[in-house]
Amino acid sequence: MLFADINLLDENLDYQTHRWVGTTEDGLIAYVGDHAPEGGLAAAFGETYYGAGKLLVPAFYNAHAHAPMTLLRGYAENLPLQAWLNDMVWPFEAKMTGEDNYWATLLACAEMARYGVVSFSDMYYHTDERVRAVVESGLKANICESELYFEPKPFSEYACAAKCEEYVKKYHGAANGRILIDYNIHAEYTSNPQTCADIAAVTKEKGLRMHLHASETKSEHEECKQRHNGMTPIQYFESIGVLDSPTTAAHCVWCEPADWDILAERGVFVAANPASNMKLGSGYAPIPAMLERGVNVCLGTDGMASNNNHDMMQDLYLLALLYKGSTNDPSVVTPKQAFSAATRMGALSQGREDCGMVKEGMRADLAVLDVSGPSWAPMTDPLVNLVYAGHGSDVCLTMSDGTVVYRDGTFPTVDVERAKAEVATRTKRIIAEV
Questions:
Q1: Which of 28, 202, 217, 231 is a good FRET partner for 80, with 20 to 30 A between their CA atoms?
Q2: Which residue range or ranges hold the Amidohydrolase-related domain (predicted)?
Q3: Are residues 162 and 250 in the same domain?
């Protein structure tokens, strides 16, 4: 595709007008210029997409998700985290089949594509079915198989160990690198030191990434300190080698100053989930302090039982806004920091070094927004407009690795009506079984 005479946010998130951007069949951005490609190059890019009234930006990378939880949208409401998990979520999940996970993931992919998301880090079960859905959708994902490790024993004695080994062999780097396999520890309170240390060693040996929850609630944080001689979840995970691998730690709501230093030193990516954390009454991560310490901050939606939608622009708005109120400082978390968290930093959290920027040689992961509506006028500062005045509904085209996965209300890669019907039927069945 050749995006012609379109305005964009460049690799520095600076606003550039009247640009031409060419993407190739192998999913790369091959041309960015202030004039049309010369000679026969323009025709080689295929379809010309005219940019009047549009803004081209890097697509979003959802750094923490549980995609199959689309099945639970609206199901477990108005509950604190532990009651939400123990009384509602875990009993529901125990009834979910592989095919349930497939259809729920497929619908999640369509929803994310609708809102400009091209890649997500997913922590859940039934990896075969989730991979199948992501590959069909044209999106990308870092996928980890989750299990709760309550019994102290070697990781090799858990069924998940053999599964993860198989998934790495089958899927790591599959679909031209769109699928990556991570290792996972759900949380400190759902695991034990022996098994966690084993998982950490395997992850490091294989050169893979780690995905975990940490300090999501105050009770989780304080009870960890009681169990482990005053160590917080981050300090505990560091002590047993978990942070020796590139790590994405979701939430980190109750992390302490000493944790911020560890996160920065270890290069951990903190996946903020402002909508989910507030909805569950957990609070919100001390993002301004983390940014000041040099912590890598990215952005996630979490699952649809605790957020209810995959609209990353909604979480982007919250990330940029709520800390100004909580700190009484309007200068914290700038629009550029927030948008970077949702794009380039999210890509880096997944190990996707060639993603997250509109730049020649990068993967063609792009979103086009319709900026012709009244909420976008005037365009005094397009990045400010995007963060504070934009909406997910402004996305009119999403391109993942050079493939259009959403365009003007259509989903070229997903039968979205069937996916909606399948998920509705399966949710009804599971609720009847619980």
A1: 231
A2: 56-405
A3: yes
pLDDT of 427 reads 98
Q: Is residue 359 part of a domain?
A: no
Q: How far apart are CA 316 and CA 386, in angstroms?
A: 9
Residue 151 lies in a domain: yes
pLDDT one-digit tens code per residue, 275-295? 999 999 999 899 999 999 999
Domain with 399, as residue range(s), is: 2-59+365-407
Nearest CA to 310 out of 178, 120, 75, 133 is that of 120
How many separate domains does the chain show? 2
- Do the domain assignments include residue 419? no
**327 is a domain residue:** yes
Q: pLDDT tens-digit profile of 237-282?
A: 999 999 999 999 999 999 999 999 999 999 999 999 999 999 999 9
Q: How far apart are CA 179 and CA 176, in angstroms?
A: 8
Query: Both 162 and 271 in a single domain?
Result: yes
Burial of 344 (0-12, 13-18, 19+ CB in 10 A): buried
Q: Determine contact, residues 406/398, Cβ cutoff 8 Å.
A: yes
